[in-house]
Design brief:
Elements lengths: L2 H32 L17 H7 L2 H34 L11 H13 L2 H11 L9 H6 L14 H26 L3 H9 L4 H12 L1 H16 L3 H6 L13 H10 L4 H25 L8
Helix pairs in contact: 2-13, 3-7, 3-10, 4-7, 7-10, 10-13, 12-13
Length: 300
């Protein structure tokens, strides 16, 4: 064994690993410890309460509402985002005649689709607050009012608010995945599309038989990232909605309840218990998604 080389590699890894332990592993460990205490953020000597915080979660209806909303977003946000992004990415890269190129102006459209990624999340939330306003200044309600219809309370109706939030999340995320899938499609040899087109494959067959199988690894990564984003959504809900998760907790999510309990109610121990649950939800989803979507790799 080359000990000189080992020392060289260890020397390069020591600082990054130390920083990772200090700024990632240690805060996680601290959060796990706080979850077993009654710490309120100000007392120097928190009292250990065992599993009491986790037992309280079972009777917390608001928390379980938040879990339900996160699960809805977890299912629908990746499904809608990936479906729309795949459609547009295919059009921009292989939607031309014979599957040999994208539609006219595809480079310009890539820039347009990616634009929402340039905006900060808080800016997106404030922007759509104005879009969803229930009066004549709202972009969606203005034409309805002009036509004589009643304005729709996109963010004030408990039956609609969560779907409005979902729409904003998908709108913001689609552009990035259009670019990601476009890069994946661009790496597929043009010969494959040309050969399939010569054999009589239409646009739908090109997508299902050529593009989708060869892009599966990229789709798998996108699905995991979007699932984690759906579980971690916070800023859009906190900024856009009434009562930061309202009305009547109809849009609240786990991250919002963690923040509320920690920084409004000063129940840091209870909030940390919620954080631990969210941590295992996220890890469990990532592991399950990677396991279920695993398939034989196609070489090209």
């Amino acid at each position: 064994m080359n000990y000189g080389r080992m020392r060289f590699v260890t020397g390069f890894l020591a600082i990054p690993v130390a920083l990772y332990v200090i700024y990632v592993i240690a805060p996680y460990a601290q959060a796990f410890y706080i979850a077993f205490t009654d710490w309120r953020g100000v007392n120097a000597n928190p009292r250990l309460v065992g599993l009491e915080n986790f037992q309280r979660l079972f009777d917390d209806n608001v928390f379980w509402k938040a879990v339900g909303h996160n699960l809805i977003l977890l299912i629908l946000m990746p499904l809608l985002t990936i479906g729309i992004a795949l459609f547009f990415a295919f059009l921009l890269n292989a939607g031309g005649r014979g599957g040999t190129g994208g539609v006219w102006g595809s480079k310009f459209y890539r820039v347009v689709f990616f634009f929402p990624q340039v905006l900060a999340v808080a800016v997106v939330a404030v922007l759509f607050q104005q879009v969803f306003r229930p009066d004549r200044s709202g972009m969606l309600n203005a034409p309805l009012i002009a036509l004589g219809f009643e304005p729709v309370g996109f963010l004030s109706d408990t039956d609609i608010a969560l779907w409005a939030i979902l729409g904003v999340l998908v709108w913001q995320a689609v552009g990035f995945y259009v670019v990601l899938f476009s890069a994946g499609i661009s790496s597929i040899p043009r010969d494959m599309f040309e050969a399939a087109a010569i054999d009589g494959a239409g646009g739908v067959q090109l997508f299902l038989r050529v593009t989708l199988p060869l892009l599966w690894d990229t789709i798998q990564v996108g699905w995991v990232y979007l699932g984690i984003a759906a579980l971690d959504v916070f800023a859009i809900v906190w900024v856009m909605t009434a009562e930061h998760g309202g009305p009547d907790h109809s849009t609240t999510v786990m991250a919002a309840e963690i923040y509320r309990n920690a920084f409004q109610y000063f129940k840091f121990g209870y909030a940390s218990a919620m954080g631990v649950v969210l941590f295992f939800f996220t890890i469990g989803f990532a592991a399950l998604a990677l396991r279920l979507s695993r398939r034989e790799r196609i070489e090209f």
